[in-house]
Specification:
Elements (H helix, E strand, L loop, with lengths): L5 H17 L5 H7 L5 H13 L3 E2 L9 E2 L6 E11 L18 E6 L11 E5 L13 E3 L1
């Protein structure tokens, strides 16, 4: 994504905060008022620029249709550290056999980890949790 000017960054931050606080996007007038912009047409211009640069998307036919495009900062990398049993018991790793080097990594939306640190993933082995829609080969977050 392309570099933002100070005003564009201010508008993007305002949109993000507005959506987080209210659960719906701002109108063009909300953006103008919240960012100290003199008119709706100037706010519209800045929104067009943000859309061209790939930070937001909008539907011109729908009021309050500003949607944020996920940026790389909104994703986290989670290591896949091994297997967890869902059926036949598997041996619990001892301190000398526990693997801390990831077998693989997953790139996930940040909201899946809910802001928690030290989240890791395990592959499920077995089908005893099929009623909970967890099947053999699925990956669970811990």
């Amino acid at each position: 994504m392309k570099e933002l000017s100070t005003k564009q960054k201010q508008i993007l931050d305002f949109i993000t905060k507005f959506i987080q606080e209210r659960d719906y996007p701002p109108s063009v007038r909300d953006v103008a008022k919240g960012c100290g912009i003199s008119s709706s047409s100037v706010a519209q211009y800045y929104l067009d620029v943000l859309e061209r640069k790939g930070y937001i998307r909008r539907d011109r036919e729908i009021s309050r249709s500003i949607a944020l495009v996920k940026s790389a900062a909104e994703f986290v990398t989670v290591p896949v550290l091994g297997t967890i049993s869902a059926g036949q018991p598997i041996p619990v790793p001892s301190a000398d056999t526990w693997v801390t080097t990831p077998e693989d990594t997953l790139r996930l939306p940040e909201e899946l980890t809910r802001g928690l640190d030290r989240v890791y993933a395990l592959r499920v082995k077995g089908t005893s949790m099929i009623d909970a829609l967890i099947d053999d080969g699925d990956i669970v977050l811990m």
